[in-house]
Amino acid sequence: MMVVMGIILFLPAGSTRFWPAWLWLLGLSGLMIFTTAFFLRRSPELLARRMKFKEKEIRRKPPAILNVYFLGFIIPGFDFRLQWSTVPIWMIITANAMVFLGYIFIIFVFKENSFASTIIQVETEQHVITTGPYTIVRHPMYLGMLIMSLFSPLALGSYWAIIPSLFIIPSLILRIKSEEEVLIKSLPGYSDYCQKTPCRLIPLIW
């Protein structure tokens, strides 16, 4: 995955001197390697669930236009090459720190919930998780993803990349709504959990 991301970042830049991309890429690669090694020993079933990509049931998919948030990873390379943005170094470093904190937050989510799959499903032995990050919002993993997605453009030194990155918000909202339809229907106790933890994604907002 990180090799592919490297191609997506450096090919538009036309140079390996795109240093914000190195900072972003190496930082996340280190965290991913740590996460894989940690859960390979602690919870290999979680890693197995994270490798699933095919839904068992056909569900409503977000409109294709929302996928333009991927441009948030392509534009920074062109931005670096053509010098569209002048993002201060302190802002790039701060944004990278926020991206890494978002990923670390997701690690805590995985540690709390080994049922965190990449697909929408409810397993036989699954139960409602109400501790740790799940006391803040009902979908803390998506909160971590949101933080990473919104700060990545600045971490990569581009103001223009912020625009497509904002499309991750409606995409996550639609994903959460689809996921909760399944959880309320199939996971005992989830409706009660919704009453106790009203916010889905952003604390005090939604």
How would you summarize what this structure contains?
The chain is mostly helical and 206 residues long. It has helices spanning 2-13, 19-42, 44-50, 75-82, 89-112, 140-155, 162-165, 168-186, 190-196.
How would you describe the overall organization of this protein?
The chain is mainly alpha-helical. The chain has a single domain (2-196), classed as Up-down Bundle (Four Helix Bundle (Hemerythrin (Met), subunit A)), CATH 1.20.120. Helices cover 59% and strands 0% of the residues. It is built from 9 helices and no strands. The chain has helices at residues 2-13, 19-42, 44-50, 75-82, 89-112, 140-155, 162-165, 168-186, 190-196. Helix 2 (19-42) packs parallel to helix 5 and helix 6 runs antiparallel to helix 8 (168-186). The longest helix has 24 residues, at 19-42. The two termini are 31 Å apart. The mean pLDDT is 85.
Overall average pLDDT? 85
- Under the CATH scheme, which class? Mainly Alpha
**CATH fold field value:** Four Helix Bundle (Hemerythrin (Met), subunit A)
Distance between the termini: 31 Å
What is the β-strand count?
0
Strand content: under 5%
Query: Globular, elongated, flat, extended or rod-shaped: what is the shape?
Result: globular
Question: Helix and strand succession?
Answer: HHHHHHHHH
Radius of gyration (CA) equals: 18 Å
* Structure annotation, total helices: 9
Biggest pleated-sheet summary: none
Which spans of ≥5 residues are poorly predicted at pLDDT below 50?
A: none
CATH A-level architecture: Up-down Bundle
State the secondary-structure class: mainly alpha
Name the helicity range.
Answer: 55-70%
- Can you tell me the number of structural domains? 1
